Amino acid sequence: MSRLWSVLPLLVAVSCTQPNVTPRSSGSVAVSNDDALLFVVDADHDLLVVIDTKTRSVLRQTPVGRQPERVMVAPDGAVFVSSRGARTVSRLSKGGEVVEATATVGAEPVGLALSADQSQLLVANSRSGTVSMLDAKTLQVRREVEVGGQPWAVTAAPDGRRVYVSDFTNGAVRVADLDRGGQVSLTLEQPAEAECAFGTVATRTPNQAADVVLSPEGDRVYVAHVQSRTGQLGAMVQNSLRLAVAPALSTIETSSDTVRRDVARNTNALINGGAAPEVDFPAAFLSTNLDEGCNETRVNSGMDAPSSLVVDGRGEWIFVADHNSNSVAVVSATGRVDERYRVPARGISDVVRVGARPTGIAVAGDLRTAWVHNALDYTVSVVETVDGALTETHVIPFGRSTLPAEVERGRRLFYSAVDARMTEPEFGGVSCSSCHPNGGADGLSWVLPEQDLNPWQTQRTLPARNTPPLWGVTTTAPYHWDGALADLPAFSTRMVTQMGGRGVSRSDVTDLSAYMGTVSPPDNPASGRLAPGLVARGEALFAERCESCHKGAALTDGLAHQTLSAVSMDTPSLRGVFATAPYLHDGTAQSLRQVITTRSSLAQHDQRGLSPADLEALEAFVTTR
User: Fold this and answer.
1) Which of 248-252, 394-398, 424-428, 435-439 has the lowest mean pLDDT?
2) What H or E segment, with its residue span, contains residue 226?
3) d(Cα 504, Cα 432) in Å, to the nearest integer?
């Protein structure tokens, strides 16, 4: 049972229901307007599961598109589902019995929202870099607007004009203007926070903006994202990536479209004993393992990466589901600090443990109950107050895994920041997914800890290395950019050590390899859209100029080559390369064009002698891989 007594005003003795200004659910679960039904998307079986909240039983399972990602209930009771693997969005009847309409949108649709007047359905197409705008009744596509990046979540301002879209890759939020056809009018960068880490100050980079939600009053937008510490720390902590990835909340004031900077709680003043001034918004950095003095607390409630968030109807509390740490944090939306909180300086009242990989959360209208979808368990946790404390009171099962046993075990290891074999959960663990979300790449360059360095030795200055994707990894040995790790057992052992885990067995490595072998490149938005003649010309140029190193089905020769800076680097695979920017071993090339022109790291890469038309053709072909 959690000791979340401090949030009792939120879930107990609340007589008024939550207004319909903002949704009461987010992510992969939604609740009907009368709280009678839960709607859960089962991405493994392409189903919308409907659950009776009173009997806690499954009423029906309705087939939807492939790999459904998110679900939303409209004020009129209609249910909307985005199907990431099918490029579709569906509208279902009030009880989820019948699919009334389905529309094709961009590649890998994720986030859903209604416009302020509820006439348009907004869909964030994560791989197309666009937002589709559809008629909410008929699902007729009105327009598809380019917003750039990797659009993940979307919400509409109450003024009927502005739409806020989170960019999963870099944590930014783009503001689109509906009065200008949805054109992006402003990009709000989440600040890189200077945060205490083990008695020192480290800079954290915003990343993985998984959700964006409007406050009930419409005066704020909250962004759930990650802050990653990619740089190098002192020798005493160099052997561990613990706390390298941590959950964060950014607050945007909609009156001015400015991001509130959490300066008071992210400076040397806290380390040096200074007091934090009063603020009226939540702490940006949600670490639960460092106190206000930058000391480790070992409270065994570390968090890793948020998946979804919900704001209570009075705008006082924010529920944040963390999908790698199997937990939900309850955070003060007004910056309230209470010495009895789990982490007073950050306004975190407590952390409730739930099932494996929570990807969605919903809150009842009377604020007495919350429901959390645990994707890897195929369950919903019912969270209620019991004897003055908030706890998981029931678990509603609705399905089971149909994956091979070794793949399922490997998947659970891959996504876990709480398994001591893989990491140090008591210090705020990390998971494989922390840097490889969905098996891909986080778009960051990391200074990884040195291996087997005596804690009292002076650590060398190490170069940053760009995170590669893991699709096809079982066929692309050797591993790491220098090719120093010959096989997956060596690679897994090294990474688990750096993540702070106690170690994995041979069977664990087999399970991890089995799961990673199922990871495939994402849906390519260029598929079928580029001119065939252009791609054919690029293919001929690729065969002539690139195929000596990027060969075979894996598009790599598995060999090391010396760069222009005299560093030997393993040939990376080009599978799914369209989705892995930035490029090169150090992440210094922002585009494929830069790889073969201005940022060439190998003499063979330099294609500046090609005509502009040939450069375009070569880039087009590589984009289709």
Assistant:
1) 424-428
2) strand 220-228
3) 13
Q: How far apart are CA 607 and CA 625, in angstroms?
A: 19
- Which residues are CB-neighbours of 530 under 8 A, at least 6 positions away? 620, 623, 624
**Measured distance CA(279)–CA(19) in Å, rounded:** 25
Residue 152, burial from CB neighbour count under 10 angstroms (0-12, 13-18, 19+):
buried
Cα dist. 30→69, 95, 315, 428 in Å? 12, 12, 19, 29
Residue (of 363, 75, 74) closest to 90 by Cα position: 74
Q: What is the DSSP letter of 589?
A: B
Average pLDDT, the chain: 84
Neighbouring residues of 606: CB distance < 8 A, sequence distance ≥ 6: 596, 597, 600
The CA–CA distances, whole Å, from 519 to 276, 294, 327, 440, 473 equal 45, 38, 25, 9, 9
HSE-up of residue 209 (Cα within 13 Å, Cβ side): 34
Element (H, E) at 164: strand 162-167
HSE toward the beta carbon, residue 32, CA cutoff 13 A: 19
pTM of the model: 0.91
Distance CA 299, CA 495 (A): 24
Burial of residue 278 (CB within 10 Å: 0-12, 13-18, 19+) is exposed
Q: Which tens digits make up the pLDDT trace of 249-296?
A: 899 999 999 998 765 444 444 444 555 556 788 878 776 555 555 555
Give dist(CA 490, CA 587) in Å, integer.
24
Is-contact 48 96, C-beta < 8 A? yes
The tokens for 251 are: 């607050």
What is the predicted pLDDT for the residue at 345?
Answer: 67
DSSP label at residue 459: P
DSSP assignment of 264-304, as one string? Answer: GGSSHHHHTTPPPPP-SS--SB--SSB-TTS-B---S----
pLDDT class of 91 with cuts at 50, 70, 90: very high
List the one residue out of 604, 546, 612 whose CA is nearest residue 573. 546
Q: Pinpoint the alpha helices (H) of 370-457.
A: 405-414, 432-435
Q: Say how far apart CA 63 and CA 97 lie, in whole Å.
A: 9
Residues 553-592: pLDDT tens digits?
A: 889 988 888 776 667 788 889 999 999 999 988 888 999 8
Q: HEC string of 293-319?
A: CCCECCCCCCCCCEEEEEECCCCCEEE
| pLDDT band of 482, cuts 50, 70, 90 | confident
* Tokens 């964030």 -> residue: 124
Question: Which two tokens mark 304?
Answer: 């890793």
Q: Given this model, what pLDDT does residue 334 score?
A: 86
**For the sheet containing 369-374, what is the strand order?**
25-27, 358-363, 369-374, 379-386, 389-397
